[in-house]
Amino acid sequence: MKEFVHALQAFLGLGATVILPIAIFLLGLLFGQKPGKAFRAGLTIGVAFVGIFLVVDLLVSNLGPAAQGMVKRFGIHLHVIDVGWPAAASISWASPIAAFIIPLGLLVNVLMLITKTTKTMNVDIWNFWHYTFMGAIVYALSGSIIQGLIAALLFQIVCLKIADWTAPMLENYFGLPGISVATGSTVSYAVLGIPLVKLMQKIPVIKNLNADPETIQKRFGIFGEPIFMGLILGLALGLLAGYSVGDTIKIGMSMAAVMVLMPRMVKILMEGLMPISESARELLQKKFGAQNIYIGLDAAVAIGHPAVISTALILVPITVVLAVILPGNNVLPFGDLATIPFIVAFIVGASRGNIVHSVIIGTVMIALSLYMATDLANLHTQMAIDAKFHMPEGASKISSIDQGGNLINYVIYKFFALIN
């Protein structure tokens, strides 16, 4: 078992840019494509994700330090540190149940496709760590591997159903036909965020407030283009972080680059994905009568939209302020401030890019996340201790907005807490 776990961790250590092309190549062969065509599709998608993650790294490497600069500049001190998703993923894979999640998760996905209870074929294997995190929480709570696995698979099933529900949005608004997203952190914010957006669109006066990229561009001409929006918002973040003039200009240029480069990387992704998607649809329709089969990918494919990036950049300082003013919150936003684009992607899609509505609903959702992350801090900290995770300096406890403040996670956790 130890050797299997080590082999699994080594495979996962290759990262999504290696795992995903392999998965796509194998799927292409499974769907009857010639090896050369399947290999080209997998390679193209791998190249696209290399580009996407380079842009994401550019975003994170600039946004994270700027957010931390804001925290230090305003002298915020809270005793629960948000360690971010990388730490949460590491803690998850160190759990005893981790070795079972990928084979069981793939089996459940196949069974759901056969029984037509999902339309999503999720090849985003790296992000199975979200399901692992859910199982690890319940395992730490109950000491039962069986309960942990049930919780993880329950979370996966909910994520797949939400992926089916939101796939039309990905096609109609983000321009990603045949794709769905079952990434745990992104879909969990959709389950309440989307209804709240729909409610806001019925409130007098507020429903008329609109600031989507197209409207901004019409009003301000070339200065309303995404490249200029990224520059302006980046400069604002640099000023709030107390950066020097040079560093402020650098982060402005980086955010402008993110706005321009991310959509172009997604176009390369679609070039590789469309042949696989068409082959999958043809085979599954022939064998099982299934229609509208979606390929489940990382939520990174949706975060490149200018409205998503703009909303996220505005929410960074808002999140820092919320941490200070919310009574009862103990979480210091830190590691996951740079992942806010993933959190708000479906909220932005539901609002059709209305940045005003997206920021309002995003603020509500992040406030709820801070409270949930605060409540889960004790258990999250115990999981970290069990995994021999190195605690950040000055932190008595840890948590994460990404998964510790995840609504579906929290509901499932509360259910198992009740029965235990």
From TrEMBL:
Keyword vocabulary terms for this entry: Cell membrane, Membrane, Phosphotransferase system, Sugar transport, Transmembrane, Transmembrane helix, Transport
Main localization, broad class? membrane
Q: Which organism is it from?
A: Thermaerobacillus caldiproteolyticus
NCBIfam families, alphabetically? EIIC-GAT (TIGR00827)
Entry's localization field? Cell membrane
> Transmembrane ranges?
6-31, 38-60, 93-115, 136-158, 178-199, 220-245, 294-325, 331-348, 355-373
- What PANTHER family does the database record attribute to this sequence? PTS SYSTEM GALACTITOL-SPECIFIC EIIC COMPONENT
Which Gene Ontology cellular component terms are annotated? plasma membrane
Spell out the protein name for this chain. PTS system galactitol-specific IIC component
The PTS EIIC type-2 domain extends over 8-420
Family annotation (InterPro entries): EIIC-GAT, PTS_EIIC_2, PTS_sugar-sp_permease
An example molecular function term from Gene Ontology annotations: galactitol transmembrane transporter activity
Write down the superkingdom of origin: Bacteria
**GO BP: any one term:** phosphoenolpyruvate-dependent sugar phosphotransferase system
